[in-house]
Amino acid sequence: QVQLVESGGGLVQAGGSLRLSCAASGRTFSNYLGWFRQAPGKEREFVAAISRGSDITYYADSVKGRFTISRDNVWNMINLQMNSLKPEDTAVYYCNAASRPRIAGDYWGQGAQVTVSS
User: Fold this and answer.
1) Between the CA of residue 75 and those of 36, 54, 97, what are the distances in Å?
2) How far apart are CA 110 and CA 85, in angstroms?
């Protein structure tokens, strides 16, 4: 079992920045940690991921150049720095542990709300 707990998020105006963090505990053997998001009425979609060990990063085209995923010195804490936020970034953001990048794994956090006002 893997437990994922998100923190951060909130309300910001368009063009602003927010930061999300995710703390993983338990059997944290997953090869990738990352973020997905789900906007009202839409399917959950991939946002960003980082690989264990090599720190290779992956981004959705919609956030590339604006979002940065990183990890702390220990594997079990990752961050998502979100800059130049747009109203279409409004969603619940979920931390995820997976065996492949861009493909959701079985373990999810509780979600963190990000709201960007125009």
Assistant:
1) 19, 11, 12
2) 22
Q: Looking at residue 14, what is its pLDDT?
A: 98
Backbone angles phi, psi at 95, to 5 degrees: -80, 145
**Is pLDDT at 30 greater than 90 in this prediction?**
no
Decide if 30 contacts 105 (C-beta within 8 A): yes
C-beta atoms surrounding 58 within 10 Å: 16
Nearest to 86 by CA among 25, 43, 39: 39
Q: Cα angle vertex 113, ends 54, 11, to 5°?
A: 110
pLDDT in tens, 49-79: 999 878 899 999 999 999 999 998 776 899 9
Nearest Cα residue to 28 out of 100, 101, 104, 96: 96
**Among 65, 68, 66, which residue's Cα sits nearest to residue 49?**
68
Please give the structure tokens belonging to residue 70.
Answer: 């990183």
- CA–CA dist 14, 117 (Å, integer): 6
- Residues with Cβ within 8 Å of 64's Cβ and at least 6 positions away in sequence, in order, are none
